[in-house]
Amino acid sequence: MINPVELAGFVLSLAMVYCNIKEIHWGWPLAILSSLLYGTVFWNSQLYGEACLQIMFVLTAAWGWQQWLRGSASAPIGTDAEVSPAPFAKAKLCVSGLQASERRVAFIATLLAWPSLSFFLHRYTDSDVAVWDGLVTALSLLGQYLLGRKKIETWWVWMLVNVLTVGLMIEKSLWLTAVLYGIFAVLSYIGLQAWRRHEH
Asked: Cα separation of 98 and 153, whole Å?
């Protein structure tokens, strides 16, 4: 029998990814709602890393929403910035790639976060998939940060997260969510191709 909370999270999550691909900022409030729903589903399935991750998703979604609405830097009138009576206006946050140094920092941060999260889950919860859950959690935090900054590498990270999560959901018999993350994996590739056309 399908859990109605899981079903609602499923629908909202698909709508969220569609908005992300199209660079529609309403994907962020959808992310908040779906994260709250999936937080309940994962907690009840002893996926504590995933459940706590949903709280982080709520916080980072609020931040990401602000980033997409606010822009990233000041730019003179006559560039891509919106018309404003002030001499400078906020530049639109555009799709871009990470610099080599930024990639190194992201890689090291994830390598440090994975064992730390796994240890916490193993030591302080009754999780039976602590290492797996810790890896998905660490990568998801990275993916969410990159999404908030409109870095194209976010889609590579989400492809990996989604494939790993399919296996994790099957392990926990969350079949509808396993299907969702399988769809997410395909949508991540579509998102990558869509953002490549807009990359600066």
From this structure: 7
Cα–Cα distances (Å) from 181 to 122, 158, 164, 174, in that order, read: 24, 10, 9, 11
Both structure tokens of 182: 């399988």
Q: Is the pLDDT of residue 20 over 90?
A: yes
Give the pLDDT score at 198: 81
Q: Which of 114-128, 143-157, 174-188 has the lowest mean pLDDT?
A: 114-128
What CA–CA distance (Å, rounded) separates 139 from 29?
A: 21
Residue 56: what residue type? Answer: M
Q: Which sign does the torsion angle of CA 178, 179, 184, 190 carry?
A: positive
Cross-strand bridge partners of residue 75: 89
Could you tell me the pTM of the whole model? 0.76
Q: How many CA within 13 A on the CB side of residue 147?
A: 33
